[in-house]
Amino acid sequence: MKYIYSAVFHPEEEGGYSIWFPDINQGATQGETLSDGVENAEDFLCGALYDMEVDGEQIPTPTAQDAIKTEGKEFVALISVDTDDYRRWHETRLVNKTLVLPSWLNERAVAAKVNFSQLLQTALKNELQLAAVE
User: Fold this and answer.
1) How far apart are CA 34 and CA 19, in angstroms?
2) Is the pLDDT of residue 94 over 80?
3) By the 8 A CB rule, do 90 and 83 touch?
4) What is the pLDDT at residue 132?
5) For labelling alongside 52, which of 5, 13, 87, 121 has CA 20 to 30 A away?
């Protein structure tokens, strides 16, 4: 799932930024530089939305960027994340599956030293149009 949310960047007096998402009530993040802040905002947002998906929580509707009020030198930036990418990198546990196939086909595959797990993963990625996904 791809999401875009508005983040409020608050410049700190001692340097860096405090960053929060008005639509996400799970905390905030920070960055020493603007690029560090954007990267941390992406990580924070993706983790928060991923947790909501896993927990079956309602994903909040993003507030329009121009509807968010700021104070002083604060500014609003749009942050884009993809929880499917996050899931592929962080959910690496393996799951056993039982399958059934004709014995003659099994014998030929075993003789050819076919890696059944790799073949099934490749076939599923192709079927789900995820062939480019590692």
Assistant:
1) 10
2) no
3) no
4) 55
5) 121
Q: Which two tokens stand for residue 112?
A: 């050819």
| pTM for the predicted model, two decimal places | 0.69
- Residues 81 and 46: beta-carbon distance below 8 Å: yes
SS3 80: strand
Q: What is the mean pLDDT of residues 65-94?
A: 89
Residues 84 and 86: their CA atoms lie apart, in Å, by: 5
Residue 103: alpha-carbon gap to chain centroid? 41
Query: Residue 81's closest CA among 44, 117, 120?
Result: 44
